[in-house]
């Protein structure tokens, strides 16, 4: 059965799925859907995902979107996936599900709201929205504090006190990497109060090397362009 | 093993869990946490759920929050649960997961944002926020349209073209029931353009009778009080 994964590597859930597949030796064809060029709005792509979003997959003839649903499906459909990603034990799995669900209305909403309305909106032909940015930043900060003081409080390097990463670690760290788009001072200001979060990001990077940095290369490149534009603006 | 379910019946995900347990013959003790009295902020309740939210469960010694995580866990931990709620077939399950995940950033965010900022905020000591209400209403309308024209487009009475309801039907319809708090004209205005949604709500109610109406009785009572207050305000 063929597996096609439709992604833009600048999208955080797209990266989580690519890293997951690489780590677990799942063979796939990566199809790039460039969001900044509007490729998610073409009639061809709407045949794949009517919601006009990435990521999406087509496994043989089965179409699926929503990144957490995709991660759960792949972890279950490919038996070579190591158990720690999506444990078969009901209570361990339920804890992972709890973090994945919490993510939507907290870290994801805060981070995406802040980064989009501070940096990315103009690339999509939309104006920056300072009020939405401020609300996003507040929720983002609160979410980072919750990760720092609750999800990472038990023994073990990963969320929930686990000794190996789960789907939740991958999804959440890929989201936080989106902060690379921000001005460095702003990013450091957001992350530096949260020492457990900083260590955990490094632990996830190490546990998913070399794929983590490979898949984030495009993001690092674009982030560098943003930084240069800022420096040019500041010195002109 | 004992199962305690901590709920406020005015909370939509609380109701979904209660109805699910009743329908599947799962025995539990219901513990009422009155949000309007701040009972979710007591130190005792924080021992149950540090996030200070309902619903939450304690199954013997296992604590869990986030309603979709709870529904998945209960459907898996209680083998008497009928398969249609959370299918074992991987692709059928993935489709249910897709709706459950989609819900967070769409129907849930729109509905909760609109209802809270139009009606409920003062009961929690907060001011109404017209701009947040307007954003919520826009997302709520778009979400109802997506349910009407996409999730309910296939044969079968329920989401995804299924002939029996899944966890997704229960979660989403309980969310929509929150619109009972609105002024009737407003609620009808929101729902009436979506004929498939209206039929589906009735189908979910029928499929989950008599528990659906039983568990929603508190909501109907409070909604009636709101309507009377509005009438009194209009005629004074």
From TrEMBL, chains A, B:
CDD domains: GST_N_Theta (cd03050). It catalyses: RX + glutathione = an S-substituted glutathione + a halide anion + H(+). The keyword tRNA processing does not apply. Its EC number is 2.5.1.18. Residues 1-82 form the GST N-terminal domain. Keywords: Detoxification, Transferase. SUPFAM superfamilies: GST C-terminal domain-like, Thioredoxin-like. InterPro entries: Glutathione-S-Trfase_C-like, Glutathione-S-Trfase_C_sf, Glutathione_S-Trfase, Glutathione_S-Trfase_N, GST_N_Theta, GSTT1/2/3, Thioredoxin-like_sf. This is glutathione transferase. Residues 89-225 form the GST C-terminal domain. It comes from Solanum tuberosum. PANTHER family: GLUTATHIONE S-TRANSFERASE T1-RELATED (PTHR44750:SF1). GO terms for biological process: toxin catabolic process. Pfam families: GST_C_2, GST_N. It comes from the Eukaryota. Belongs to the GST superfamily. Theta family. It is an enzyme of class 2 (transferase). GO terms for molecular function: glutathione transferase activity.
